């Protein structure tokens, strides 16, 4: 299986970066979507204060106080009241949870959207399942056409993955489309898994919707994380919430794997979920970076075809240039971006900029583009 999967695309980007660095080029790195913001001080303090002389194993179901803090945030943000003991389970960031979900869902295939974050498909293949790719349609706001799924396959589907705000396109989804996907999941008895890692980063319009707002959450699970919202990617802290039956299955499965965040990380996470002021600051910082870089990219011939959310810019290359050639050309000026083809078939002719360098570095990149 491992040999079949090929190199994780970003490992290839790392090799190209290393080559450019060796040639003395100073790099501004918009390649990987890894936040490099300062974690707010009150969160770091909460972590330090929680370190005990004796360190025991964290429980797979997480601390009740953390589940309660997550439920409080969901109620504040989405107006939905969940039972923290039956409808929420903490995760070690969301990547492992995305990877593992295929292990607890019955069926023989997992549907993912393309271009997209590759982890759900990789998890499905490690679980021995087929991967069905659904193209995001740029003409429909980067939503997939669920009608394109063969009804015979739908009955044997384990999971349909949706990711909004979307990596790499920045698109958002409305509750109507989530409702249609959830109705399909109930009809064919598969899991609708909504990866909402970027739900707190939006720059126009109303705050992104969550599948937790659906009136009927049967067969629906939502994943979120502190990595982007609270600039805590290294802490590894997120959650899954939704259908109590699914959460019960995850509570049985997860002790086998050993993927609970450390207790001191859970304490820091409680502080993070309980505070919204720092999230507004994080959002404004990404907005400033977007405002600094996007006009310069447009002036350099790129066309923005992405949506209003996430910290990604999704752009068509100038004059239809091949995306890998374009990324290599920018690398020579010290600007690292990810070729769209890294995210699957629909990414040809596109590049993705992750707005993770500092605002000053974004301004320098804009000047270099000029
Ligand atoms: C769409 C999407 N989902 C999930 C993740 C994983 O985030 P984490 O494991 O830090 O929670 C990422 C990270 O880049 C992502 O882009």
Can you put this structure into words, describing what you see?
With 370 residues, the protein is α/β, with parallel strands linked by helices. It has two domains: 2-39 and 277-369, Aspartate Aminotransferase, domain 1, CATH 3.90.1150; 55-273, 3-Layer(aba) Sandwich (Aspartate Aminotransferase, domain 2), CATH 3.40.640. The protein is 40% helix and 16% strand. Strands 2-9-8-7-6-3-4-5 form an eight-stranded mixed beta sheet, with helices on both faces. The chain has a four-stranded antiparallel beta sheet with strand order 10-11-14-13. Strand 6, helix 9 and strand 7 (191-195) form a beta-alpha-beta unit. The protein is globular. It binds pyridoxal-5'-phosphate (PLP). The site of pyridoxal-5'-phosphate (PLP) has 14 residues, from helix 6. This is Aminotransferase class I/II-fold pyridoxal phosphate-dependent enzyme. Keywords: Aminotransferase, Transferase. Its cofactor is pyridoxal 5'-phosphate. GO terms for molecular function: pyridoxal phosphate binding; transaminase activity.
Distinctive features:
alpha/beta, Aspartate Aminotransferase, domain 1, Aspartate Aminotransferase, domain 2, eight-stranded mixed beta sheet, four-stranded antiparallel beta sheet, binds pyridoxal-5'-phosphate
Bound molecules: pyridoxal-5'-phosphate
Number of helices: 15
**Succession of helices and strands:** HHEHHHEHEHEEHEHEEHEHHHEEHEEEH
Strand tally: 14
In the CATH hierarchy, what is the architecture of the largest domain at level 2?
3-Layer(aba) Sandwich
| Gyration radius, in Å | 20 Å
Spatial sequence of strands, sheet with the most strands: 2-9-8-7-6-3-4-5
Mean pLDDT: 95
Beta-strand proportion: 15-25%
**Count of domains:** 2
Instruction: Point out poorly predicted stretches.
Output: none
**Helix/strand/pairing class, anyone?**
alpha/beta
């Amino acid at each position: 299986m491992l040999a079949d999967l090929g190199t994780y695309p970003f490992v290839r980007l790392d090799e190209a970066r290393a080559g450019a660095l060796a040639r003395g080029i100073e790099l501004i790195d918009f390649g990987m979507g890894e936040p490099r913001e300062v974690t707010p001080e009150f969160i770091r303090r909460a972590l330090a204060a929680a370190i005990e002389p004796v360190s025991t194993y964290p429980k797979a179901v997480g601390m009740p106080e953390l589940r309660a803090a997550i439920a409080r945030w969901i109620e504040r943000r989405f107006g939905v009241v969940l039972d923290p003991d039956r409808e929420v389970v903490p995760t070690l960031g969301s990547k492992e949870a995305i990877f593992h979900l295929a292990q607890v869902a019955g069926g023989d295939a997992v549907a993912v959207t393309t271009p997209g974050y590759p982890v759900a498909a990789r998890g499905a293949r490690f679980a021995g399942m087929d991967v069905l790719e659904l193209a995001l349609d740029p003409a429909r706001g980067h939503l997939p056409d669920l009608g394109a799924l063969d009804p015979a396959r739908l009955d044997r589907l384990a999971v349909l993955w949706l990711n909004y705000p979307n990596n790499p396109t920045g698109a958002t989804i409305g509750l109507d489309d989530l409702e249609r996907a959830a109705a399909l999941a109930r009809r064919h008895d598969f899991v609708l898994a909504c990866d909402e890692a970027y739900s707190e980063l939006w720059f126009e319009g109303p705050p992104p919707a969550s599948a937790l707002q659906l009136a009927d959450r049967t067969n629906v699970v939502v994943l979120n994380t502190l990595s982007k919202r609270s600039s805590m990617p290294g802490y590894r802290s997120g959650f899954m919430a939704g259908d109590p039956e699914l959460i019960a299955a995850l509570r049985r499965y997860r002790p086998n794997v050993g993927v609970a965040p450390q207790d001191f990380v859970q304490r820091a996470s409680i502080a993070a979920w309980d505070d919204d002021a720092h999230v507004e600051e994080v959002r404004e910082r990404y907005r400033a970076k977007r405002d600094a870089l996007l006009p310069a990219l447009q002036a350099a011939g790129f066309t923005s075809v992405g949506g209003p959310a996430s910290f990604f810019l999704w752009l068509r290359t100038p004059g239809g240039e091949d995306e890998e050639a374009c990324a290599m050309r920018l690398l020579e000026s010290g600007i690292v971006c990810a070729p769209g083809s890294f995210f699957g078939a629909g990414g040809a002719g596109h590049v993705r900029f992750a707005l993770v360098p500092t605002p000053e570095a974004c301004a320098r990149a804009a000047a270099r583009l000029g």
